[in-house]
Prior knowledge:
- It is a single chain.
- This protein is mostly helical.
- The chain has a single domain, classed as Up-down Bundle (Growth Hormone, Chain: A), CATH 1.20.1250.
- It has helices spanning 4-17, 20-40, 44-65, 98-103, 128-163, 166-185, 189-217, 221-252, 256-276, 292-296, 299-329, 334-339, 342-362, 364-381, 392-420, 426-454, 456-470, 484-490, 516-523; strands at residues 78-83, 88-93.
- It has a two-stranded antiparallel sheet.
- The longest helix is centred in the first third of the chain and has 36 residues, at 128-163.
- The protein is globular.
- The two termini are 36 Å apart.
Amino acid sequence: MPTAAPRVPWCRLAAGRASRRLVLVVVFVALLLDNMLLTVVVPIVPTFLYITEYEGANRSLAPAQTEPAPPALKAPPFSSMFSYFDNTTVTVSGSISATELVNGTESSPPPQPPASSPPSPSSCPEGEEFLAKENVRVGLLFASKALVQLVVNPSVGLLTNRIGYHIPMFIGFIIMFLSTVMFAFSGTYTLLFIARALQGIGSSFSSVAGLGMLASVYTDDFERGNVMGIALGGLALGVLIGAPFGSVMYEFVGKSSPFLVLAFLALLDGALQLCILQPSKISPESTRGTPAFTLLRDPYILVAAGALCFSNMGVAMLEPTLPIWMMQTMCSPKWQLGTAFLPASISYLIGTNLFGILANKMGRWLCSLIGMAVVGISLLCVPLAKNIYGLIGPNGGLGFAIGMVDSSMMPIMGYLVDLRHTSVYGTVYAIADVAFCMGFAIGPSTGGAIVRAIGFPWLMVIIGVINIAYAPLCWYLRNPPAKEEKIAILSQECPMQPKSYTTQKTLRDFPLADDSDVEAENAE
């Protein structure tokens, strides 16, 4: 009896490892922290570079440029003067020179200009030329994460096919933790750039392995759509919390504080992965996956990837350019630069959870088509805002529409692989993440240059028109045909209602315990 008590926690842990919901929790938390770090820097970097580089340079030049004023005999701010002309005493203010006192004269105070409101601390920053150049530099810094992730993603997809999803997920956690700590203590543009690029490597491991793991665990198409919506809700929640959290902490606590909080949360995520996923265990896929080049030649996968790329490119262009545009035109304080993204984040969170269920009923292709059209219209309305309140409507519509596209396209990518290729998901979700990263690489890097050349309003017009023009292509995803070798497998199902399907490999439950392989062999 005494020996049975210590086994209870281990039995509960083994039962937890066999639970698909805990796998969903792990992926949710990983995407949450990844996207909090993605957006927490958005309000911090532009103002931090402006303060350290522009104002810092001006402060160093200020002592050399100032000259001492000629000495003057100061009088108290308000002093009494006796007049022998009419035996009265008058009160004068200001400083009086020695010459005036010797001559017995006093100059009348200069006429005061009309009363006007003094400039507030949140007045528009100086240095228009510096801010114009900063658009390009900040855009390149933000794009570095996506560019690195773009390069690393295909390798991570192949790695997950060989060793499974657990070890790459844990590698992603380690790299993300190092990147977060580096952000906290970086004081120059170069170090911030390296930290952002390092984040791209960690994000590639976490997102590809996490989404592929969910697709392999939840094989039913309807169930997978709901789960992908919940997982993308973690992404949305990270975007929701990141920018406002970063701006408020930076304003009232300091630059390092939000990153140190994220580093602590990342440690908790690592402990959760150690308990649930057993990252020391290699579990390769039993079936060889379709090569990446074969998937890239599939026109339906390319259409879905293009929808992910262009819809997210709009918000990617806003991240480096909108805070600087607000500083120039709205004279916004630092805390408003992050809260401006709050409507987009809240509506994205609502959209991903709502259309994770509705998209399967109304048609994921239709949901994506409407979403891309709304993205374009919302972007066209952003330059019309005159203050932060005018950004609520356009940013809210933008986030809701991107949620419609993401919650529809992610399940479609897994469904297209089941329908037309081998049911191994690491490579296809690497392609989906590549499309996502292309939007966040091309958007900031080109957005800053376009703003400097033709202005922020024309940038919004260009990307808005692109989204509206691409939207009709989603119609081709309405009823994609199956490959010839898959028709026999899917012949007993209705092609218009692909609720579930049988994959080519033998599917088993997802126990993550050590004896899972033995159970699978005995079952065969």
